[in-house]
Amino acid sequence: xxSPDHRSDPGLAHTPRPGGIAARAKAxxxxxxxxxxxxxxxxxxxxxxxxxxxxxxxxxxxxxxRVLTTRIAHILxxxxxxxxxxxxxTFTNKAAREMKERVxxxxxxxxxxxxxxxxxxxxGTRILRRHAELxxxxxxxTILDTDDQIRLMKQVIAAExxxxxxxxxxxxxxxIDSWKNRALGPDQVLPGEAQAFANGRGGELYRLYQxxxxxxxxxxxxxxxxxxxxxxxxNADVLELYQRRFRYVLVDEYQDTNVAQYLWxxxxxxxxxxxxxxxxxxxxxxxxIYGWRGAExxxxxxxxxxxxxxRVVRLERNYRSTGHILTAASALxxxxxxxxxxxxxxxxxxxxxxxxxxxWDSEEEARLVGEEIEALHVKGHSLAEMAILVRISxxxxxxxxxxxxxxxxxxxxxxxRFYERMEIRDxxxxxxxxxxxxxxxxxxxxxxxxKRGLGDATxxxxxxxxxxxxxxxxxxxxxxxxxxxxxxxPRGTLRELLTAFGRWSGLMDTLRQGELAEIVxxxxxxxxxxxxxxxxxAAGRLENLKELVRSLEEFPDLQAFLExxxxxxxxxxxxxxxRVSLMTLHAAKGLEFETVFLxxxxxxxxxxxxxxxxxxRAGLEEERRLAHVGLTRARRRARIYFAxxxxxxxxxxxxxxxxxxxELPESAVEVIDAPASYSYGGYGASRFDTVGQTPSxxxxxxxxxxxxRGFGSPGGGFGRGGTxxxxxxxGGFDRGAGQARRRxxxxxxxxxxxxxxxxxxxxxxxxxxxxxxxxxxxxxxDGNKLTVDFDKAGRKMVLDSFVTRG
DNA sequence: CGCTCTCCTCTTTTT
DNA sequence: GAGGAGAGCG
Length: 806
Hints:
Elements: H1 22-26, H2 41-48, E1 54-58, H3 64-77, E2 86-90, H4 93-107, E3 117-119, H5 120-130, E4 142-144, H6 146-159, H7 169-181, H8 191-194, H9 202-215, E5 218-220, H10 221-234, H11 236-245, E6 248-251, H12 259-269, E7 278-283, H13 297-301, H14 303-306, E8 311-315, H15 323-333, E9 354-361, H16 362-378, E10 386-390, H17 396-406, E11 410-412, H18 422-435, H19 440-447, H20 456-469, H21 473-480, H22 488-507, H23 513-523, H24 526-532, H25 538-552, H26 558-567, E12 580-584, H27 585-588, E13 593-598, H28 609-632, E14 634-648, E15 651-654, H29 659-662, E16 669-672, H30 701-708, H31 730-755, E17 767-770, E18 774-782, E19 785-790, E20 794-799, E21 803-805
Parallel strand pairs: 1-7, 1-8, 2-3, 2-6, 4-5, 6-7, 9-14, 9-16, 10-12, 10-13, 11-12, 13-14
Antiparallel strand pairs: 14-15, 17-18, 17-21, 18-19, 19-20
Helix pairs in contact: 2-3, 3-4, 5-10, 6-7, 6-9, 10-11, 10-12, 15-28, 16-17, 18-19, 20-21, 21-22, 22-23, 23-25
The structure holds a DNA duplex (15 and 10 nucleotides).
GO cellular component, one term: cytosol
Keywords: ATP-binding, DNA-binding, Helicase, Hydrolase, Isomerase, Nucleotide-binding
EC number: 5.6.2.4
């Protein structure tokens, strides 16, 4: 309750805030519950407007999750619903987990928790398993991930005698995905779009793929929603069951929903009686960055239209960033059209301006970022409070190299997930075969892994028989080992494998799944395969397998584990140690850091050329939202960088500062002249200076001259005078880059020597092991700096703290 | 059947 | 530049 004179519970420490909705809030009377304390007026309105459709527009850092969880707490505490009557959906498991924890914290552990709080997909799965037979599946259907999907599509394409090279399965997967995102079945595909693949056979292949899925008793991720929608549409009684059950529906990140998710929600939230239409969606149109995977910003823009009588609550008070950061982010996003419009405000100080630093090339950029991280670290800033956010993962390598050289610990967030690693997928395939012998895709995967002489020829025979007899591959194999169809050698090997599987399946009930997994991996020769492997990654892979066995033990049984794996592609939680975080801008959504580094703000990279080419203005606006997300991750410091030269697909390209830089207000930014750098200090009042825009005070006329000569930037010309006429082409760049590199070398030298304490414990000829480069031999020692000839990775310079004796 | 070489492609990513 | 996939050779 915002009014200061409001009587409050003893001990309730809530800051009175100005607001004008006291009367409305008071309608709920009674002593004020503690969980409402500390909410501002808008947040409180969002929490207490429980009935009817509500859209909460929650800008970055405005307490979105808090509103969502408090709202659930409020519904429970006021007895409006039981935990099992609330449907709360998120996109990621992480968000779901967080919400569960926070609700539990607010209301105290409610007996059965919140059974219907989860991701769209996990809840979809749950519903689908209960009514599987209504959509042609069995309740124990398997969930295929992208890898399985593509392999299956390859088979479908091959079976239709279509040239997979000309019409790649990946592309078909993309198409089918986009259809499923819009809840389109094979019959509903627009003829024009079906035309886009294999001369109009797109729709046909989609149908065949769906048929294969049903035969395999499998569903892909899209099906978890689309089949649920079909289930609801074709079975009014089932739909009504759920409509009645879910008295309150809450949706997180509504701006990321696709058409299928929207339809799914609408079916569930639009009960016949008014009391069933309590839908609350929380989102931020300015943070919609997943359009490329089917998210429809339109869903949030049209909310009021779709749900008549909807209330819209705007959360605009930002509790995260300082004034300058917020000003910069707001000014940037204001360039977007077609937004619902919010103005973020803060009561925090203006703080440090957003800095913009130009570098000669991406290598220097990485160096500048590294130096700044060190400088802040020396001043006592925690590394865990710093993050480098990049547009594409390809940017990470150079930054990583730099951090390794500096000895700055870091962690990459996102990247290949644990369960996507080859060795994990192989191991899982073994377990899947043990648990369900009819899992053809799994069986095929491990049939010849490790190599046991069951190659293409054998697979072909198996397939032919399985298809003809309409039985799973494993069953076909059992039959074939009793016949003469296979050559004696593969036949014997296959028989052995089948016997082993029989044995392992028999152990399922008596052994703990972890032990079982160990036995399977051991006896199948899989562990052995990696132990014999002398490559750099082998050790890590064995580690991962151990980790898998360990995490397996956390589940009651193998089935539960496999279910978890197909839906929750993650394991453990990243340690929050003293480490700099490195991730893509996409991965950064929802996170915040004291200091955020934003390298690579160049035309073509960010905004990304491909986004522009493929989606035009909408693409540009999504890129701009991405920039907005990036800036608003920062609490106190945001540092933007751009390089004048960058290697793209292995080729050096001259680049131009991002138009987003030009869109930042001068009042909130500071242009840094990188000292001792060959970058041209300051960025031009670029060609993006359109009519009516404030001309930049740091414009350099040389820029436009360079432009005119076909140089992306004055690259060769600045600072050294006179070489500008060197002309475009690689010669000029190579020279420039070469000099920057030489110069950079000295700087590196200084840093590293300064850091070295005493001499290294290693000497020439020592065998060492490096986490990233694998085994190698020391060829030179210089302080704490080693030059190592790595067996696989070649000669590298590394710090001794990064290697172990090996 | 398996290994090696060459060619091709190449955002963003969750479930 | 680097990884993945397919072709071709041993």
